[in-house]
Amino acid sequence: MSEMFSMTDVTVCYDNVEAVRNVSLSVEEGQIVTVIGPNGAGKTTLLMAAIGLLASRGRLAFQGNDIGRMSVEDRVERRLCLVPEKRELFSDMSVADNLLLGSYSLRDRSGVQKTLDEVYDRFPRLKERQRQAAGTLSGGERQMLALGRALMAKPKLLMLDEPSLGLAPLIVREIFRTIASLRDLGVSILLVEQNARAALETADYGYVLETGEIVQSGPAKDLIHDPRLITAYLGGH
Amino acid sequence: MTSDIAAILAIDGIATGAVYALVAIGTVLIFTVTRVIFIPFGDIAAFTALTLAALDAKRFPGTGALVVILACLATLIEIVSLLRNGERRQLPRALFFYLALPLAVVGLASLTMRADPPLAIRLVLALMLITPISPLLDRIVFRPIADGTVLLLLTVSVALHFALVGLGLLFFGPEGVRTEPLTSLSTELAGVLISGQTMLIVIAALVFSGLLYLFFDFTLVGKSLRATAVNRTGSRLMGIRPARAGTIAYLLGSLMAGVSGILIAPVNTIFYDSGFLLGLKAFVGAIVGGMTSYPGAAIGAVGVGILESFASFESSALKDVIVFSLLIPILIWRSLASLHSEEEIEE
Q: Is the domain of A175 the same as that of A147?
């Protein structure tokens, strides 16, 4: 397996406060990697720096190239995609238009219709509601649309920020099933989650982020049985 | 007032309103995509009329020199910013779009001028010369402060308007112009004579609004502009560059302003500083649409035109007072309405 994405000694500052300190992590090709940790640990900040919405120090590499100084749009054109925590949908545009705009960064437009059909196959609900405005969808449908829109860009690395946030348990399960199935498409995934159990059950490898620093890492199947993590995040005894 | 006079005033008002509508739609387009309330829009319309008048008189218009100066400035700024960000690869592209393209337009115009072109070609030339101005101004003035507050952008926009009026005096001189009507046809509708120019204005406004609608609803670029307007962060995450979306918005907007300048030039005498009132009245129309709705802006602008027409019949001296007094109740109504919608969002 070759390395898809890596962060080396990445530090992100808000004004003069270091929200993320010397974080190093990597995602191999076809791997699902999760970053878990409590609220305010800097998980979202980490992803914002990875996509370029926040400036950072340290090295960011995507498929062997340094992307640290690239604009957000250049990173997206290299097929590094982020589904942000707030989804950032185009609320008064239709579901179909939202999906179409997901493919905006693709130069080769020939496969767009096929990808759209695949997204509709994956999320039949979106097909039913394709003419509806995105702002009128339910929370679960919005998350599906955000995921579908990101898939339209044919991402090589998909970064997901709290995809289960605010969703009903049944829909959370559906979303995680979808995430797991993306592995078969060859998409590498960097998943940031508060729902640590679901994230570790889906992921291959995990990092634990606390107050801006990585405090622990390992294969997900080991972390899920780690006594300290069980008490702190997995709600076990 | 007899019904005949009312009908004439209404038709006159609709024609003027249609011109305002084009500028108002352009204003909304630029505001939603870039958050800039582009006050100099009226100036662009007036400059188009002055450009066309110069072309009609077989003089090369001052617009050419203005475009060349702006292109050089914009190129310089772009090169410095690219070098500072270490993006040397983008240099050829920048030279092409900011220098070669505008200079080619001016060159083409000056070559075509010698051949004494017919009216249709002169119209195209006037539009071609005017459209680069706003995108270049955007690069020079607004791009460096793109993340500023709406208030900062507005203040700079007002300053830019005054700078442009000065440049207008420099390049076009103090004389007013009135171009020849584009058509001498006229028709009678229900006993009221309607001039061809009036019909042309209304048809052109409808056609250009229609084209814009098709562009927004059926093209990927049009949709990307709407996306930028709806959600800037979301659109960046799709790879849509706000700066490029802004340039397209300025290009389209100035085309609309240019068309309105061409349409109004045979009806009103246009001076280098006539743009301000035109832009301001279109702005009142745009505010009726809450600065975000194209149909709202168009309806508002036509309303302003009709009101102005009747007001000028009742009291010519007070017509602008009446039109701008309209702004106060509209702003109160809009602020109450938007207060309401913010509450809904919070829920």
A: no
Q: Residue B28 has what pLDDT?
A: 92
Percentage of residues in chain A having pLDDT higher than 90: 73
Has residue A237 got a pLDDT over 60?
no
Distance CA B24, CA B29 (A): 9
Domain residue extents for chain B: 3-173+189-346
Both A3 and A68 in a single domain? yes
Q: Chain B closest CA to A222's CA: distance in Å?
A: 34
Range of the domain at A121: 88-154
B223 touches chain A (CB under 8 A): yes
Chain A hits for B239, CB-CB cut-off 8 Å, are 73, 76-77, 104-105, 153
Judge whether residue B199 has pLDDT over 90: no
Write phi, then psi, for A3 (nearest 5 degrees). -80, 130
| Residues B198, B286: Cα–Cα separation, whole Å | 22
Verify that A111 and A143 share a domain, yes or no.
yes
Residues of A with Cβ-Cβ distance to B223 under 8 angstroms: 93, 97, 100-101
Six-digit token string for B231: 């959600």
Residue B196 has pLDDT above 70, yes or no: yes
User: Has residue B347 got a pLDDT over 60?
Assistant: no
In this complex, the residue of B86, B220, B231 whose CB is nearest that of residue A100 is B220
Residue A126 · residue A120 · CB < 8 Å: yes
- pLDDT tens per residue across span B31-75: 999 989 999 999 999 999 999 999 988 888 889 999 999 999 999
This prediction's pTM = 0.89
For chain B, the 3-state helix, strand and coil shares in percent, each to the nearest 5, are: 80, 5, 20
Alpha-carbon radius of gyration of chain A: 17
Q: Which residue, among A104, A112, A116, A157, would best test binding to B if mutated, counting the most B CBs under 10 Å from its CB?
A: A104
Domain count, chain A: 2
Number of H helices, E strands in chain B: 16, 2
pLDDT at B24 over 90: yes
